[in-house]
Amino acid sequence: MMEIEKIGGAQVFKFSAIRIEHLEARATEYTLVTIAIDVTGSTRNFADDLRKCLIIAVESCKKSPRSDNLLLRVIIFSSSLNNGIEEIHGFKPLNEIDPQKYPVFNPNGMTPLYDAVYSTVGATNAYAKKLMSQDFLANGIDFIITDGDDNTSSATMKMIKDEIIRGARKEEIESLIGVIIGINAGEFKHRLDALANETGMKYIDVGDVTKGKLAKLAEFVSQSVSSQSQSLGTGGPSQNIQATI
Asked: Which of 57, 64, 93, 168 would bridge with 221, disulfide CB 3.0–4.6 Å?
């Protein structure tokens, strides 16, 4: 029931998504959600906690009154992976996802952060375009969780910005919110701030890793998804995304 699509750029990235014909009896509008997680070597000490955070966030989204209108994609990124990015699963309905089966993370390698952001935004735009062409309403929200700066990408900040602007200008998607989440990223806060400012995304600094902070992060993801989904059909993005965690 999944199909493979490609995103162009300095290198070709791929994503998968449920075939649109399998959505026709479910809903007429969808919020596309992507969670991208940094699994480079520096995250090794808290990799298990990141996985637990992801599981809690997805389980919380399943409890949303708008859960039937959400399609979720989860990816991990590291230079140790093929093409720097690995899809745990493509865009699919929440009721088809068992987060307890998400694989254990094995952090290694360097940080293709810009590639991860560019491919995430590109996949959201590309699938939203297909949905909109079939008379579905579609908006999106992307979360990129990282502890460091880019050091091995082929994509650039300009490419990311241009892709975000292009999707909105060509009305391929009603609205798209991108959120960069820094965790244990104090050393690189100024660089992640610059990425957010240059591309028009939001930057949220979680601070040092603790179980309490990761629980709040999972709650933040769930609430932000719910707010963006509730804004679908208004013509604009949610205005209720928190500025801090």
From this structure: 57
